[in-house]
Every structure is written in structure tokens, then in C-alpha cells.
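Write out the 3D structure for:
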Amino acid sequence: MTQLVILPHDEFTLRLDNIRKALKSNNIDAAVISDNANIYYLTGRVFAGYIYIPAAGPEIFFVRRPVGLEGDGVVYIRKPEQMAESIGLNAPETLALELDITSWTDIQRLSAVFPESKIANASPVMRAVRSVKSPYEIERLRLSGQKQERVYRRVPHLFRPGMTDLELQVEIERVSRLEGCLGQFRISGDSMELYMGNILAGENADNPTPYDFAMGGEGLDPSLPVGCNGSVIRPGDSVMVDVNGNYTGYMTDMTRTFAMTQVDALAAKAHSCSIEICKAIAAAGTPGVHAKELYGLAEKMAREAGLEAYFMGHHQKAGFVGHGVGIEINEQPVLAPRSKDILAEGNVIAVEPKFVIPGVGAVGIENTYVVTASGMECITSAPEQIISFS
């Protein structure tokens, strides 16, 4: 038999206590958690089933698969209807389900388990709690950042003249997996899809995509219209590398720009502006700052540099300049013009002020930062200037 909860005890207790506090502050009596990312957050593993968390009282782990898990509060079931009947649970007055990410069919079925309960939304509660990382989580992110940095430092040595963007991406993916990358790019919701990252060479960066990513790309097939499209990497092209940083179950996000030869003056100016924007946001990003103010700062710097036409895209623009990262790549807070998020100590944010220059491609950087009392600390420290393949 194997213990279900594999987090350190103090970490497990801290996370549950934070969720219970959030439930109480939202007048919620209990929550049922079934999303893989939230189950991983609460236990350190993924299992098929449900976690019942009352605002007051012991949590219960209702497990369907795998067999062989044990521990306090573990109850095996075959179907959700057994949650109430198996241990005689009383219906809470208000029950929160993950309404943002659970199918309508499952919501109806779970609601029927507790027909007397008023249904509330657990998704905002879980997003808010997970947005503030514990020291344990930050160490997991630091380790991912260190491993991702080692991969990026090898990228120039993987390039060969005549390569396509796909061939380069395959080599980077191979090195990443051998370094320990888990391969999974966990994204909340179903409106965004990605494989192991985004390699954009030359003008392919200006191809719009249906996903709300900072950069696009035509992709290799209409079934996944984003990223590399098989273009040969040419002198004068920029090559933007934004690959998977999931080495620990917690993802860092880092982008660097490469080139065979020197890019033109406009692209070089835009790249330098991206670095300066990152520095400015890192200095300004203290607890209590509104996320939309940081977006405004980035937009202002791009506009004053005369680069607003290329900022966060050219033909199609992204609506943000940064986003929270952790177990998923699109967590809170979001640095966007209408964001209601306010920075808190322990937030971990990927800042990505990027530009698309016609005839050259995408330039700029992305770093992952931890919000501290004095500003934002970078945990992805690969070289930031445009890196030569030669």
C-alpha cells in the first residue's frame, strides 16, 4: 500500500488551512475538488476521484483509481453517488464545485449527490489560494528554472545551418527531456493548446493563432495551429525559443531569442526595449500593486520607444504582458489592461514583453519572477541579449 498524500505534512496542512479560510470567507460550507491540477496541489499526486473539503472538519479522499492508496480519510468508491452514502455525509448548506472547469454533465451529477445543497463556484477560491506560493513551492519552481536555464544554454550548439524550425525544436525537446522535463504543458481550461513549446523562426511569428498566446505561428497542421511550421531558418531571421519548463510539476516560463546573423536595427531596438520593460516591471512589482498598472507601464515604454505597432504581436496582438505560473501555465495574477488582480508576496509571474518585426520575426524575452516585499526576483537567468547560433 502507498500513502495517498505525499506532500510534507506541514505543507499539506498549510494548503488545506488556506483553502478552509478561503471557503469560510466566501460563506462556503464545503468544496468537492476533482480537477487534476487541484488534486495534485492538495496531495502531491494525481488520482481519479474527489476530495471533499469541509470548511470545518476532516477532509475525505474519495478514490476511484489507482488501487492501493491509503491514509487518513481515504475511501474507495466506484461512482460519485457513493460519496454521501458510503460514510453518511450530511449535505452542506453551500457546496462549491469547480464550475469553471467541470463539464455540465459532471456538475449535474455531483449536484445530485447533495440535492439539498446550494451550489457555489470553487474555481475562484482555488485559483486565489494557488496564486500565492509557499516557500516549498517556490523551491520547486527554482529547480525547474535552473534546469530550463541549462537547456537554453545548449540551444546554440544544437543548431546546424539549413535546419528548419521543426528540426531545431525536436533537438531542444530531446535535450529538455533528457534534462528531466516531464513533457506535460498543463494549461487550465480548454481554450488553449500547446505541445512542448513554441519555436518561431522569421515571419512565421506573424501568423495569427486562435489561442491567446503572446506569440502565434502557423503550426504544422490545422489541428494545432500554433508554433513552428517547417520553415528553414535563414540569415536575418530571429528565432524565438519558448519551451516547456516543467521539471518538478511546477513550471517556469522562459523565452530567449536567437539568430544566425545580426538582426536589423529595428528588431535589435525592440529586443533591448523588452529587456528594459522586464527590469522596470520587476522593480515596480511589489505586493499591493495592481496588475493592470504593470501592463500600463509596459505599454507606455513600448509606445515611448515608437514600438507600439509591434508590441505583443503585429497582425494580431495578445491582450496581456504577463501571467501567473505554477502547476499550470496560466495562473493568477494576469498582467492585463482590465485585470482586477493585485500582486501579493509569493505570486510567481512570467513577464513576456515581446515584439513581432515584419521581415525579421519575434524578438524579446520572458522571465519568471517571484514577488517579494522589495520587488520581483528573477528565477530564469539565461543570457538575455539576442544569442548567436555561431
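The two ends are 54 Å apart (CA to CA).
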